[in-house]
Automatic annotation (TrEMBL):
Protein's gene: dltD
Homology family: Belongs to the DltD family.
Species of provenance: Sporolactobacillus kofuensis
Protein name, per record: Protein DltD
Pathway: Cell wall biogenesis; lipoteichoic acid biosynthesis
Domain of life: Bacteria
Phylogenetic lineage: Bacteria, Bacillati, Bacillota, Bacilli, Bacillales
First and last residue of the signal peptide: none
Family annotation (PANTHER family): PROTEIN DLTD (PTHR40039)
Keyword Thylakoid: no
Keywords: Cell membrane, Membrane
Length: 395
């Protein structure tokens, strides 16, 4: 009689536990190829704050992961997401990024796919604006921080203990992470292994695992909701007329588009943006960045964490170094000498770790590589498309 009364309840609890605690490998198999096609260029924040999409993506050699920040949203016809539809080369760019995604944010993205990354090619776009005296701050980190990825990082053994401890120490420098209850405590245990008794650590690890599995279940549900939408305000459709252009012609047509869009301002900034945000406030921007040096920044150490992980997993990575808008930064109070210190430090760090670098900092004082004060424009994308194709085709 008692079993008849409680049997359905017990069965329900067992089923719920089975669903929540199903292995991630099974959850990944429940993500379809259509889900992945929708996610590849959706720019949906769930893609880069989740795990399943990125792990599933790396199972398919069709996708070339591209990590970056707000420049990925500038979806003009020369953007890799559009250009490689016009001129397919055997791969589909898979976009991972939005504004404020600095190296440490991407480290968590990469750490969640550490095993799947082995032997893969990736593209990583570096913005010189990351390398300020402050580097990544809570204002940019908190909205891009993923609890699911942080739990995965704390609980998994996919990277070396020494690197894991170093990253955990960096993460718990942020108060909003330390204040995250169980997550904050397990990360501090990784950073400082001997700070608490084993029993307290084990208890928190059990709680952490339960929370992590609930987050991965939510991740799975959200994956089926992703639509192949773009940021419509900045999206241009692929232009199939570009298919017949060689690289010289492509760059020239992109340059002509940039000239037309920037028209009459000396900073070569997209004219509607300049008219709306800068023209009538120009005086307040004079020397507004004069105190920035870009030579000393926590971002260099955060970038090194990314490089260490990629070396551990033998990832074939192309780093793209984007220039400042030199004329704008001259006006803002950061002279070229200071900018070149940042360019050299970035290049030296990438090359000394054995990675490929597409260095476009020679466009610092030349117009049209960027479309505004910091974001890649049509001509910039044309040069980057060429560097991506060369990188992808090289065995």
């Amino acid at each position: 009689m008692k079993f008849n009364r409680f049997g359905p309840m017990i069965l329900a609890v067992v089923l719920v536990c089975a669903i929540i605690f199903m292995p991630t490998s099974i959850e990944r198999r429940m993500v379809s190829s259509k889900d992945m096609a929708n996610a590849a260029q959706s720019l949906d924040p769930h893609v880069f704050q989740g795990i399943l999409a990125q792990q599933k993506m790396l199972e398919n050699k069709q996708y070339l992961p591209m990590y970056g920040s707000s420049e990925l949203l500038r979806l003009d016809r020369y953007h890799p997401a559009n250009y490689f539809k016009v001129k397919p080369d055997g791969f589909t760019p898979f976009l991972i990024g939005r504004g404020g995604m600095y190296s440490l944010v991407h480290f968590l993205n990469l750490a969640t796919t550490a095993n799947e990354l082995k032997g893969h090619k990736i593209v990583f776009i570096l913005s010189p604006e990351w390398f300020t005296k402050t580097g990544l701050d809570p204002l940019h980190f908190k909205p891009n921080f993923s609890k699911e990825q942080a739990y995965h990082f704390a609980l998994s053994n996919t990277i070396s203990p020494a690197l894991k401890e170093k990253v955990a120490k960096r993460l718990v420098q942020f108060k909003f992470i330390r204040d995250e209850g169980t997550l904050g405590r397990v990360l501090e245990d990784v950073a400082y292994p001997n700070r608490r008794s084993p029993m307290l650590k084990i208890a928190d690890q059990f709680r952490a695992y339960g929370t992590y599995k609930i987050l991965t279940l939510h991740d799975l549900i959200e994956m089926h909701r992703i639509k192949p939408g773009y940021k419509h305000a900045q999206y241009q459709k692929p232009d199939f007329r570009l298919a017949s252009d060689n690289w010289r012609q492509l760059k020239q047509s992109a340059r002509e588009m940039a000239i037309q869009k920037t028209r009459s301002n000396c900073f070569h900034i997209d004219q509607p943006l300049y008219d709306k945000f800068i023209r009538h406030h120009l005086n307040k921007f004079k020397n507004y960045r004069a105190s920035e040096s870009y030579g000393q920044s926590p971002e260099y150490a955060d970038l090194q964490l990314v490089l260490d992980l990629l070396k551990e997993k033998h990832v074939d990575a192309l780093f793209i170094s984007v220039p400042f808008n030199g004329k704008w930064y001259d006006y803002a109070g950061v002279p070229k000498q200071r900018r070149e210190i940042a360019y050299k430090k970035i290049a030296d760090e990438i090359r000394s770790n054995g990675f490929k670098l597409a260095d476009f900092t020679r466009f610092d004082s030349k117009p049209y590589f960027l479309q505004d004060t910091m974001h890649i424009g049509p001509m910039g994308w044309a040069y980057i498309d060429q560097s991506i194709k060369k990188f992808y085709d090289h065995n």
